[in-house]
TrEMBL record:
It comes from the Bacteria. Keywords: Membrane, Transmembrane, Transmembrane helix. The lineage of its organism: Bacteria, Bacillati, Cyanobacteriota, Cyanophyceae, Nostocales. It comes from Richelia sinica FACHB-800. InterPro entries: Phage_Syn9_Gp224 (IPR021355). The chain crosses the membrane at residues 6-26. This is DUF2973 domain-containing protein. The keyword Membrane applies.
């Protein structure tokens, strides 16, 4: 009898978790398509009364903005293909310029 109670409880929890997952995915898709207002200078007005006196505006993370402050609509991960020799040369250059490499060279001399 106790086993059936556990199965019933975990089945209910699984349905709740899947329902929350689906609801969050839908909300994220709506949030992604939403247009956010531009930054305004009203946040620093001397007439505002701190946190409760101003409307709270959404400010996106700085990594989601380009150099002029506009939201990026492109994919954030762009991979450039390079050949193995170029990658090896770049890694060797990083290794040679590291501080630990200078100490090893002095010990060998």
């Amino acid at each position: 009898m106790l086993h059936l109670l556990y199965i019933l409880a975990f089945t209910i929890l699984a349905f709740i978790a899947v329902g929350n997952l689906i609801r969050n995915l839908i909300m994220f898709s709506f949030d992604r398509e939403r247009n956010y207002p531009e930054k305004s200078s009203s946040m620093g007005n001397p007439g505002s009364f701190g946190y409760y006196g101003t409307k709270q505006q959404y400010t996106p993370h700085p990594e989601l903005l380009d150099n002029s402050g506009n939201i990026i609509k492109e994919p954030l991960l762009i991979m450039r293909s390079i050949n193995v020799e170029d990658a090896r040369q770049q890694l060797d250059a990083l290794y040679e310029s590291s501080p630990g490499q200078k100490v090893e060279n002095q010990e060998e001399a």
